Write a sequence for this structure.
């Protein structure tokens, strides 16, 4: 996630009505993402939202594991499959490229909302922090993780990452220039601060239930698969420039890996 696109001088030829439709679609996709992101914080942290990771009717443990794995697998397939260059090229043959990122964001958000809705809790306690100071520290750690995620998206152009820049640029009658490689802020220390933030947020909890452990473990494993896929694409896009960056900068923890 250390790349950015900037607007170029190429003019689009679509009508004002078509460009307005593209813009509206992109804004809708962003709003759905924003709702899903905020709900995710409450879902994992078990705050405010009506249904969290440990709330809801509990069925059998086996049934819950099967359902929850299916939901996480659906998200993983959609999230990784649509992020690949092959899908992006295919999408460009059937719709405006300006819609590609918004479509990705919309479907990823929808699959997350489905996960939140259908998640089956497994409330068997694996560990629990009894010391108040440690419990508060775990809660604070979770919010720090979410802040790292959000901050990292703004470092590499938040609105571009979630499709708004593309649809606004298209509405203005311009296209985006090819992606440019850059490493601002945290990206000089680690290659994937967004993923690190998610890992911190998912594991930082004063009470770890079996359901929460399943969620944290599977999503962490998926993150490492996602890193491998993403870096393969980045090497294909930027070649030796990204290889040198990968050699110099740690993946998730400075000085370790």
């Amino acid at each position: 996630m250390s790349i950015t696109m900037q607007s170029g001088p190429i003019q689009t030829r679509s009508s004002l009505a078509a460009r307005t439709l593209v813009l509206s679609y992109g804004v809708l996709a962003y709003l759905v993402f924003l709702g899903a992101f905020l709900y995710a914080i409450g879902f994992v942290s078990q705050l405010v939202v009506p249904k969290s990771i440990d709330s809801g009717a509990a069925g059998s443990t086996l049934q819950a594991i099967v359902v929850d794995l299916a939901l996480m697998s659906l998200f993983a397939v959609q999230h990784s499959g649509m992020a690949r260059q092959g899908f992006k090229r295919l999408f460009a043959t059937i719709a405006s490229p300006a819609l590609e990122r918004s479509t990705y964001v919309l479907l990823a958000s929808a699959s997350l909302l489905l996960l939140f809705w259908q998640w089956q809790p497994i409330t068997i306690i694996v560990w629990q922090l009894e010391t108040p100071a440690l419990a508060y520290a775990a809660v604070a750690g979770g919010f720090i993780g979410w802040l790292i995620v959000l901050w990292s998206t703004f470092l590499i152009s938040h609105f571009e990452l979630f499709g708004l820049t593309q649809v606004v640029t298209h509405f203005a009658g311009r296209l985006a220039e090819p992606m440019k490689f850059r490493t601002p802020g945290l990206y000089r220390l680690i290659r994937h601060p967004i993923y690190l933030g998610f890992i911190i947020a998912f594991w930082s909890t004063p009470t770890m239930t079996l359901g929460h452990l399943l969620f944290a473990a599977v999503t962490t494993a998926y993150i490492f698969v996602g890193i491998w896929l993403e870096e393969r694409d980045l090497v294909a896009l930027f070649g030796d420039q990204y290889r040198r960056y990968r050699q110099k900068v740690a993946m998730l923890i400075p000085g370790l890996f």
Q: What stands out?
A: The first strand starts at residue 3 and ends at 4. The chain has one domain: 3-248. The chain has ten helices and six strands. Residues 16-45 form the longest helix (30 residues).
